[in-house]
Design goal:
Layout: H1 5-8, H2 15-21, H3 23-37, H4 45-57, H5 62-79, H6 87-100, E1 117-122, H7 129-142, E2 147-151, H8 157-170, E3 174-175, H9 183-196, E4 201-205, H10 213-230, E5 237-243, H11 248-260, E6 265-269, H12 279-286, E7 291-295, E8 303-305, H13 308-316
Parallel strand pairs: 1-4, 1-5, 2-3, 2-4, 5-6, 6-7
Antiparallel strand pairs: 7-8
Helix pairs in contact: 3-4, 4-5, 5-6, 5-12, 6-13, 7-8, 9-10, 10-11
């Protein structure tokens, strides 16, 4: 059962759409880069200091920024002479090099295990978790796959209601229970119904609370254990959704959720409305978890697979 090829093609993730989605971040990057090299002809210590400040203030993150700066220093030393006109090209090459070194899952993978393929989605409230689920379900459905959704965020009526609206909008069933019901029970019912009806994919929404990591860990562990009783090996993917517009706060959320449960993929949303898209570079570099998808708008088709090279090319031109 191969169904992930849908997301991985460069032609499906057009450069034009990516450029539009990253417009604010790109404009900020370009402006800061211009200020970094103004009045300079070569890449010297002053340029490198300014570049370091530029990357950090663009939410790339300190660790990743220092890694980039060290590589550019080595490049300048090796090449003896690097002028500022070449800095954009050098920066692009070194960022792509760093990102290419990270072990990431192959989005073009196929799945030949027991149906359904189960995705458990986690993340704090307000990051676009439920919307991401709806967009992802729509993509699977458009490929001819049978999709079920599970409303296991039973602590917020708005979350259940929003998921049901998405289900009606794209024509996929949503399994829910009463408010305050056991999330694990909802997950069990969803997988049982999906398996009985021959579903290909199940996506489970979960509560977005982070105020008590112990409770969160216990809850997510319970959900996973219950799902395994219906589909051995489930969940196949634990996807953490992060709001790119929060900048460095997204790093902290990734750290906290990684402590609470095993995360296997990341989705970064709301990149179209922020100049903080540089956070994707840092997250991709610092976590040994693949960024699979990025959200570039409100439209149902605005969830796109994350292509590292295409992203950097769009960002730096």
């Amino acid at each position: 059962m191969a169904f992930f090829g849908l997301f991985g093609k460069k032609d499906s993730e057009s450069r034009e759409a990516l450029d539009k989605g990253l417009e604010k971040t790109k404009a900020s990057f370009v402006e800061k880069l211009k200020r970094t090299i103004v009045g300079k002809s070569t890449v010297d210590d002053d340029v490198l200091d300014n570049l370091e400040e530029m990357l950090i203030t663009s939410d790339v993150g300190v660790e990743t920024t220092l890694k980039i700066i060290d590589r550019i220093k080595d490049r300048v030393k090796r090449d003896k002479y690097v002028n500022t006109d070449e800095l954009n090209k050098v920066l692009r090459e070194e960022i792509c090099g760093i990102m290419a070194e990270n072990t990431t899952a192959d989005i073009e993978m196929s799945y030949d295990g027991e149906k359904p393929y189960v995705i458990m989605v986690v993340g704090v409230n307000g990051v676009g978790k439920t919307t991401t689920i709806g967009k992802l379900a729509n993509k699977f459905k458009n490929q001819g796959l049978k999709v079920y959704l599970g409303a296991a965020d039973t602590f917020r009526a708005a979350a259940v209601e929003q998921l049901c609206i998405w289900g009606e909008r794209i024509g996929v069933p949503v399994i829910k229970q009463a408010m305050g019901a056991d999330p694990a029970s909802v997950a069990f019912d969803t997988l049982s119904s999906a398996k009985k009806n021959g579903a290909d994919v199940v996506i489970i929404d979960t509560a977005g609370r982070l105020h008590n990591k112990v409770n969160l860990m216990n809850e997510l562990t319970k959900i996973k254990n219950v799902m395994k009783k219906v589909v051995p090996g489930a969940p196949n993917d634990v996807m953490l959704v992060l709001d790119g517009s929060t900048g460095q706060n997204a790093f902290e959320q990734a750290k906290q959720f990684s402590k609470a449960t095993e995360i296997t993929s990341l989705t970064v949303t709301k990149l179209d409305g922020t100049a903080k898209g540089g956070v994707v570079l840092g997250i991709s570099d610092q976590f040994s978890i693949p960024v699979k998808y990025i959200g570039l708008g409100e439209g149902v088709d605005d969830l796109r697979s994350f292509d590292k090279e295409l992203f950097v090319e769009s960002l730096l031109g």
